[in-house]
Design a protein that fits this description.
heterotrimer, A alpha/beta (505), B alpha/beta (447), C alpha+beta (132), A: 505 residues, alpha/beta, Aspartate Aminotransferase, domain 2, Aspartate Aminotransferase, domain 1, 3 domains, 7-stranded mixed sheet, 15 helices, B: 447 residues, 14 helices
């Protein structure tokens, strides 16, 4: 290959650019900004402000032109995989298509250039939208009330467990434990611990389900809550959920529902009807707001009426009767857990999710669940004979495979994931859930067509064959990316977390 | 349904391959008694065309910087946003990617975060920073938690000038842990007072805001000396990140954790979110820093690349013993801020900060000379300050609104002791004429 | 997986630590099996000299890129020396877990606890039982 390299330039492959750090583009005296002329008297900061209050220079910030910046980030973007380039089957992340209408309306100036602390009467359109979204999420989940404030699923969990704690404390009970199944997301135990609870792990049964007996054995009056993800991270509907909720309730505990996998349930069943007392929604999963390279998300929380007194403030209230018409932000909730977000939540995400729900309507939402489940089962049917399937049965929105069939080849789940990249696919979630050794967790979502699934399945099947025929090829993948496997050990042993200028002494 | 590609023929073919007769049969795991036997009670699906009109109509019921002259800040700041930012962050390769778990196909996101980390270190004067927090408020709460872990102490001293919403979020986050939170007094000039009386040997940290909620620039050096004398850490939170371009980097004068809100760097106000929190600290406290971190490394051929690193601090590995429960953060807003900082650069960011200072000084001088108005605090400020009114604050604000001016924040719910007072913010968006109109509108009732 | 080294002259805990008694001091590290299970070790957190631990209590943490494992005191005692070199070179645990990769030296509170530890044969059985 190297003999075909171009003699000069920063690309070895046509339009596939190497791209230095922006700091390495910097040239003294170049600029990329444009400011209005000063129309008030100039000031000298060092005269105006106390001695020592003014900094010297922003040395280390780059000096680059707008052209430099636009090319830099455009080139960087080409180094990313993305949903808009193809299937992105990260299990538990619901990487569905992100409709462009949603982004467009969220950037309307009446939303994007509006301020959270403006008087209520100057944001009636937003409050009306929020009120509508609260009602929609309540209907979808079978909950009574919803707060839109949490900025992400994990913050929603924190809010939910706080409400549970406030509920127990108001009843004069000091409970000390939270139960979490061993297949749960790591955020569950972390959120419980942030509330001062100790965490007890409950084992998943042989069939991958949580069993009433296991919950019964762990459930005492010291337990504040059971946190449960349904469908579970194994892609299975927790068939015993109603009985499990009864067991927890009988000892005075409440059940927290992790809504990460709600996409499989839309219009099929409702967590609130199953006995869940509080749950969060991941708007960036189920309701299509873009994942943004790792956020922003939004994590509204739905609760049953017993927890309504503890909702974060402010709450959005529709005026009625003598109060006139419209909506207000209401701070009068004496038993509230308080505020979690600096403002009213990630409003831009709320606008997108509202638009999504209005685009789909009740039939469209149900169709999402049906097609997501159809797609996961179709992939499983195509892969069953080629991969080890730890829990081989009909699944919900995702299926979990493992690398167990490859032990004698030395090829692991990580290698399969990396080789998938050579085939042009973003790998699934790997090594999660922890209860399956070498897990490969695939969530295709409803956005993929049957042809897209066929191509993806064929790639996975081809890799399974390669693993036997030429394991070294798979173990050293990816081969066709602009970077080969990156040394994570080196990064962790000797962390380099920022660029350092080469300064002459 | 335009977002779902399946035809009925596809569905039949797929069902056959799976070996079931109907879609219903796929849900065999969901017991019949739990099935929802009705359609969800939601508005019917709407066309893109009519939905666009509906959202447009809702948006027009909100005031914005396009409909009013804007002097309301208080943690969310109206700054000009260069056009290149929206163009770049709208690229699908950024918006529709997720957390860069697979570094070989996520170098775009990872490198941008590495650049962000470098620039936040520069601005804060500290050595390490993470790949963002949700917002300034939760970053401040996470800083308090981090300080408690580092010191194994449980007392948190909040300066009077910390944004009341930030203080509320700190209280909420710490409510489940046996933490003691105390708040200092406010001095006559608007700055922190009586810190020495509250810091003791059980104090994990002192949290100060710079500039503080009332717009005043705190004397950080003295506060840091008091805190360090007791072995407490100092958290400096910054609600107006542009001030970092002008004021001494808190890390350089001894702050241990510098956190805050970077919305001012090219992120739309967007009714309060999504914004982007930041958090920086010293190298020696790195292991206690929450959130994602990007580090430099090499690939098998020795070429530079970037990866998520030091993940063992995080919830997906350490679970209940993690430094935080944070998972997804504010990736795309971080990218907006990174692009903004590149465009403004070393020179532009400083010039913009000085422009804000000049506007604010002009506005303050107009307030001083206008009958019926006065400055509540004489401490130096950056681009925000408190105006005391002889007349009724709510009435003055309403009068200004009628003239198309959102004049500031009524401080009655936050500081009733100040009487009729409003917090006013003047950024580069404020022209001299608009400042003159603001002052006239506010004074109108007193004359 | 490479063959697991289990030197005959050492004693072992069921938590995969080894101990070597040396002039009244008890040197502690993690076994070859443990370091292979963890993979590339990137960070070792150790206590300060002078700290005391009961048998079975966590005295430190060892981390690979994607896993965290507690270090449990194989016997009770006071820490009298710490291998500070691991701060800069955690990879020593992978390279030579029974030599340069040692972690702490204890002054035992009850020397008889050493006798209750596994010998190399018993530890090998303990390892094999988990490898199936």
């Amino acid at each position: 290959m190297s003999d075909r390299r171009t003699k000069v330039g920063n690309t070895a492959n046509g339009f596939s650019y190497e791209e230095p750090l922006i700091f390495e583009h910097s040239t003294d005296g170049r600029d990329g900004f444009s400011l209005p002329e000063l129309d008030v008297p100039p000031v000298d900061p060092t005269e105006l402000l106390p001695e020592g209050a003014v900094r010297e220079d922003l040395r280390d910030l780059p000096e680059v032109s707008e052209v430099d910046v636009v090319r830099h980030f455009t080139r960087l973007s080409t180094w990313n995989a993305a949903v808009d380039l193809g299937i992105y089957p990260l299990g538990s992340c619901t990487m569905k298509y992100n409709p462009k209408l949603n982004d467009k309306v969220a950037s309307l100036p009446g939303f994007a250039a509006a301020h959270p602390l403006a008087p209520d009467e100057l944001m009636q359109g937003f409050l009306q939208l929020c009120h509508g979204l609260e009602q929609q999420l309540a209907e979808v989940s079978g909950m009574d009330r919803v707060t839109l404030q949490p900025a992400a699923g994990a913050q929603g969990e924190l809010a939910g467990i706080m409400m549970i704690r406030a509920y127990h404390e108001h009843r004069g009970e000091k409970r000390s434990q939270v139960l979490v199944p061993d297949s749960a997301h790591g955020t569950n135990p972390a959120s419980a611990a942030l509330n001062g609870y100790s965490v007890t792990s409950i084992p998943t049964g042989e069939d991958g389900l949580l069993h009433p007996e296991a919950v019964e054995a762990a459930m005492t009056e010291e337990v504040a809550s059971l946190m449960i993800t349904n469908p579970s991270t194994l892609g299975l509907f927790e068939e015993h959920i109603a009985r499990i909720c009864e067991i927890v309730h009988a000892k005075g505990g409440l059940v927290y529902g992790d809504g990460a996998n709600l996409n499989a349930l839309l219009g099929i069943t409702r967590p609130g009807d199953l006995g869940i007392d509080v749950m969060h929604f991941n708007l960036h999963k189920t309701f299509s707001t873009p994942h943004g390279g790792g956020g922003p998300g939004a994590g509204p929380v739905g609760v049953k009426n017993i927890l309504a007194p503890y909702l974060p403030t402010p709450v959005i209230r529709k005026l009625g009767g003598d109060e006139g018409e419209g909506y207000v932000l209401d701070y009068e909730l004496p038993r509230s857990i308080g505020r979690l977000h600096g403002n009213n939540g990630n409003a831009g995400m709320l606008v997108r999710a509202y638009t999504y729900i209005r685009s789909l309507g009740p039939e469209g939402l149900k169709r999402c669940a049906e097609m997501a489940v159809l797609n996961a089962n179709y992939l499983l049917a195509r892969l069953r004979e080629h991969y080890h399937v730890p829990f081989d049965r009909l699944v919900m929105h995702e299926c979990v495979l493992s690398d167990k069939f490859l032990h004698e080849t030395g090829v692991t789940t990580l290698d399969i994931a990396k080789r998938l990249i050579d085939y042009g696919y973003h790998p699934p979630t790997v090594y999660f859930p922890l209860v399956v050794a070498g897990a490969i967790m695939i969530e295709p979502t409803e956005s993929e067509s049957v042809e897209s699934l066929d191509r993806f399945a064929e790639a996975l099947i081809a890799i399974a064959e390669e693993a036997h025929e030429d394991p070294e090829l798979v173990r050293t993948a990816p081969h066709h990316t602009r970077r080969t496997r990156l040394d994570e050990t080196r990064a962790a042993r000797h962390p380099v977390l920022r660029w350092q200028p080469e300064r002459s002494a | 349904m335009r977002y779902i590609p399946h035809t009925e023929a596809d569905v039949q073919r797929m069902l056959e391959r799976i070996g079931v007769r109907s879609l219903d049969e796929l849900f065999v795991g969901v017991p019949k008694k739990h099935r929802l036997e009705r359609a969800l009670d939601l508005p019917a699906a709407e066309s893109e065309q009519l939905l666009t009109a509906h959202l447009q109509a809702l948006s027009e019921q909100n005031a914005s910087t396009q409909t009013h002259d804007w002097f309301l800040g208080a943690g969310t700041h109206a700054h000009f946003i260069p056009s290149a930012i929206e163009t770049l962050v709208s690229r699908s390769e950024f918006t529709t990617a997720y957390t860069p778990y697979q570094p070989e196909i996520s170098q775009g996101t990872l490198q941008a975060i590495f650049e962000w980390q470098t620039m936040i270190c520069c601005l804060t004067g500290l050595e390490v920073t993470n790949a963002s927090m949700y917002d300034g408020a939760s970053a401040t709460a996470e800083a308090a938690l981090m300080a408690m872990r580092c010191t194994r102490r449980n007392r948190v001293v909040l300066a009077s000038g910390v944004h009341p919403h930030y203080a509320d979020v700190v209280r909420t986050y710490l409510s489940g842990l046996s933490a003691e939170i105390v708040t200092t007094l406010r001095a006559e000039d608007g700055r922190v007072s009586g810190l020495a009386d509250l810091v003791d040997d059980q104090t994990a940290c002192v949290i100060l805001q710079q500039p503080n909620f009332w717009g005043c620039i705190e004397d950080l050096k003295s506060a840091i000396e008091v805190a360090h004398a007791h072995g407490a850490l100092v958290v400096v939170t910054v609600a107006e990140a542009l001030s970092l371009a002008l004021l001494t980097a808190p890390g350089e004068i001894g702050a241990d954790i510098v956190c805050g809100e970077a919305q001012s760097f090219g992120v739309p106000m967007s009714l309060g979110g999504p914004h982007v929190g930041f958090m920086a600290t010293r190298q020696k406290l790195l292991r206690q820093l929450p959130g994602r971190l990007v580090g430099e490394t090499t690939d098998t051929e020795g070429r530079r690349g970037f990866v998520l690193t030091l993940s063992t601090r995080e919830q997906h590995i350490r679970r209940e013993r993690a430094t935080s429960n944070i998972c997804t953060n504010q990736g795309l807003c971080l990218l907006m801020a990174t692009i903004y900082l590149c465009l403004m650069g070393r020179v532009g960011l400083r010039k913009l900060a000085e422009l804000n200072l000049a506007k604010s000084e002009y506005a303050r001088s107009r307030v001083r000379e206008t009958p019926g108005l006065s400055l509540a605090f004489e401490a130096p400020s950056f681009n925000e300050f408190v105006v005391r009114l002889d007349g009724d604050a709510a009435e003055s604000l309403a009068r200004a609104r009628e003239q198309g001016i959102v004049a500031g924040l009524d401080l009655a719910p936050y500081a009733p002791d100040l009487g009729n007072a409003i917090l006013v913010c003047t950024t580069e968006l404020a022209s001299r004429e608009s400042i003159d109109r603001l002052v006239e509108a506010l004074a109108g009732g007193a004359a | 997986m490479a063959e697991i080294q289990i030197p005959d002259e050492l004693r072992y805990s069921s938590d995969d630590e080894w101990v070597r008694v040396e002039a009244g001091r008890v040197i502690v590290g993690i076994t070859d099996y443990a370091q292979q299970q963890l993979g590339d070790i990137v960070f070792v957190e150790l206590p300060g000299a002078g700290a005391s631990f009961k048998k079975g209590e966590a005295f430190g943490v060892v981390e690979s890129v994607k896993a965290v494992s507690d270090l449990c005191a194989p016997i009770g005692g006071k820490v009298i020396e710490v291998n500070d070199a691991l701060t800069d070179r955690p990879e020593a645990v992978n390279e030579a877990c029974y030599a340069d990769g040692w972690m702490v030296a204890f002054s035992p509170s009850d020397p008889e606890e050493i006798d209750s530890l596994l010998d190399s044969e018993a530890y090998r059985k303990h390892v094999e039982a988990r490898s199936d």
